[in-house]
Amino acid sequence: MPAVRTLVDLLRGAIIGVVEVIPGVSGGTVALLIGVYERLLTSASALVRGVVRAVVDPLRGRGLAGARTHLAQVEWRLVLPIGIGMVLALVTAARVVEPLLDEHPVTSRALFAGLIVASLVVPARMLGARWRVRDVALAVAAAAAGFLLTGLPSATVEDPSPLAILGSAALAVCALVLPGVSGSFVLVTTGMYQPALAALNGGDVPTIALFMAGGVLGLAVFVHVLRWLLASHRRVTLAIMTGLMAGSLRALWPWQSDDRDLLAPSGDVGIVALWFVAGVVLVGAVLAVELAVVRRRARTASSADDAARRD
């Protein structure tokens, strides 16, 4: 069974990697959907702390004990296969997914919109059955912010500076960690999307290294902030996440111009609607399976507790 679990985690990472190539679709949203978001966030926090301690502590004469403690808290059996799957999928998707999106933009956006609409259930369910007035107000405000953000015109940068690459990559990784905000969309907005794809497809190692360094920088700063927010202000954070996911649907309206102006439905609307429904059904099926597994585990645990009491 460990081999099956590793294969599943590789697939999970691949899914996250693929959607990160698609502007408007958040890898953090997918991580929430497939049930690994908080575990990955906790492991990422421990990993960053461990690396920082490994660099700083020896300079202070404290050795590596602190670094080992943090690194031991990382779920390596989860993080490694998901990380490998993400990297492989990113490289592959840069060559395969992008041409498909260019050739079929309307139906692709409809499918992705259906996926996101159905996945709104995930953070909403994490928040709880009863939404308070404040939760709704925060979600609406976040949705409005997400709607405005995804409507910004894309920038174009022909020859980006190293500092611009570092900064945009740091922002993109922050978006990757935050459900509802697409990392690739941040790159589009800052004009770094095409340079990033060109670097991946062309094997431009120096540029890829700069993007990776910026990503590590962003992860080191933001992951701790988000983990603290989930621990200390869980309801507020989850309400805002839900709103951001809802607002980001603007980027996935099937009919829009190159400048992201929303257009009225046209062409074969029925086919587009079917692709949207297919996205909803796909996520709904995954959620139904997840719910069945959770209930089965709960029944098994309850039966085990009853047996233990009888013994």
Q: How does this model look, in words?
A:
This is Putative membrane protein. Pfam families: VCA0040-like. The chain crosses the membrane at residues 12-37, 78-97, 109-127, 133-152, 164-188, 208-229, 273-294. With 311 residues, the chain is mainly α. It has one domain. The chain is built from 14 helices and no strands.
Strand content: under 5%
Can you write the helix and strand succession as a string?
HHHHHHHHHHHHHH
Estimate the global geometry from the Cα principal axes.
Answer: globular
Tell me how many strands there are.
0
Classify the oligomer.
single chain
Structural class: mainly alpha
Task: Draw up the topology in text.
Elements: H1 2-20, H2 27-33, H3 37-59, H4 65-72, H5 76-103, H6 105-119, H7 121-127, H8 133-149, H9 162-177, H10 183-189, H11 193-202, H12 205-232, H13 234-247, H14 269-310
Transmembrane segments: 12-37, 78-97, 109-127, 133-152, 164-188, 208-229, 273-294
Keywords: Membrane, Transmembrane, Transmembrane helix
InterPro entries: VCA0040-like
Which characteristics define this entry?
transmembrane, 77% helix, 311 residues, mainly alpha, membrane, VCA0040-like, Putative membrane protein, transmembrane helix
